[in-house]
Amino acid sequence: MVANRKDTLAGRNMWDEFIALRDRQRNETRGAMQVVKEKDLPLETNQMGQMKWYLHPNLKDVVVNPMLVYQQEIPPGSRSGRVKFQGGQVMLILEGKGYTVIDGVKHSWEAGDVLNLPLRPRGIIVQHFNTDPNVTVKFVATEPNWTDCTFVDRGSGFEQLEDAPEYRRK
Q: What's CA 72's distance to the chain center, in Å?
């Protein structure tokens, strides 16, 4: 493909394709959601734990999708999965208390706190823990939606290192 790239591109009009892409995007977002309501989101149990997705690269029914935004719940005394990813995420703790381990360093938090996960070229390893035996931790996390331009690996590698205890492979 690389050897033929010039010939392949010579037979295309990239500007017209850009305008066609614009028109497709306008059609796709016509009638799209301006407001995503928590009550309309299912609680998904996955390898990271229990999550509700507000914005995700595969959710195309919203007006714009520049961020990944999700709410995560961690049952009393439990933990999330452990993951390696690029970082650059901000979390607002809504309920509960616990801590997050970032590259082996423990950071305690409680409701009302904001946790910044650093952006690092080789990525970070992260896992969240609920230390309260009675209260479910809830937090909202957001990060830029880089996946459409840098792929899921986002330049640092993306690996599920450990599953949350609530996750059962189907």
A: 11
Q: Where do we find the tokens 């394709």?
A: 17
Q: Is 131 helix (H, G, I), strand (E, B) or coil?
A: coil
Q: pLDDT (tens digit, 9 = 90+) per residue, 147-157?
A: 766 666 666 77
Q: Give tens-digit pLDDT for 28-73.
A: 888 899 999 999 999 999 999 999 999 998 888 888 888 899 999 9
- Cα–Cα distance for residue pair 83/100, rounded to 1 Å: 12
CA distances from 104 to 60, 82, 128 (A): 36, 11, 12
Rounded Cα distance between 54 and 69, Å, is 5
Q: By C-alpha distance, which of 102, 106, 109, 105 is closest to 85?
A: 102
Helices (H), 11-129: 14-29
Structure token pair of residue 42: 């299912």
3-state secondary structure of 55: strand
- Residue 61: its H or E element: none
Q: Which has the higher per-residue pLDDT, 134 or 1?
A: 134
CA dist list (Å): 11 to 3, 17, 18, 20, 42:
15, 12, 15, 16, 46
Number of C-beta neighbours around residue 59 at 10 A: 15
Q: How far is CA 35 from the centre of its chain?
A: 18
